[in-house]
Amino acid sequence: MTYTLYKNDLPAGFELSGDLAIDTETMGLNPLRDRLCLIQISNGDGKAHLVAFDGKDYSAPNLKKLMANSNSTKIFHFARFDVAVMKHYLNIDVAPIYCTKIASKLVRTYTDRHGLKDICRELLSVEISKYQQSSDWGSAELTPEQCHYAASDVFYLHRLREKLDVMLKRTGRANIAKECFDFLPTRAALDLSGWAETDIFAHS
């Protein structure tokens, strides 16, 4: 995996074909409080494109144009958070969506370990390090270690989708998975509107 780091936006004329693996790095797990610092993108060709934000400029017209391509599926791990934070800071609606965490929860019912590290280990026999996960992503200059970590978070998502799709088909859960993926923008909107911890479908 190689990576290229950009500041605040992708360059003009940037194009990337195919389905896109996407991840974000923030200052925490509350999208209303913790600012968006980095977006990572890969189309599965072994290269990652990292867009670091300074916290002031989120206009990013070239990035938004890439995300607006409805012919490209956006592959996430825990899309609920990434979609919400991109909606809050970039004001974009990302679709169509595939979430490897949701797919894992639907088919790997024999475990409660659905982190990216866990499913990479089981499905791809790959060990990934999460050491940099809690580092300072708001720093003015990211370290090579942070960039390598960020790139690795999108490097395996295409391969994981292939493995999980086989399991979804085998278990007859592909349709319900798609319906869950399609609901994610609404789930993110609920999170941003104050219903993050409330199950509005519950009886009580």
CATH class reads Alpha Beta
- What is the assigned CATH homologous superfamily? Ribonuclease H-like superfamily/Ribonuclease H
Task: Give the averaged pLDDT, no decimals.
Answer: 95
N-to-C CA distance: 48 Å
How many distinct beta strands? 6
Uncertain ranges: none
Please give the domain count.
Answer: 1
Order of helices and strands: EEEEHEHEHHHHH
Structural class: alpha/beta
Rough outline:
globular
CATH topology: Nucleotidyltransferase, domain 5
Query: Over the alpha carbons, how many angstroms does the gyration radius reach?
Result: 16 Å
* Count of runs of 4 or more consecutive helical residues: 7
Please give the largest β-sheet: 6 strands, mixed
The percent range for helix content is: 40-55%
The percentage of residues in β strands lies in 15-25%
Give me the CATH architecture, please: 2-Layer Sandwich
- Strand ordering within the main sheet: 1-4-3-2-5-6
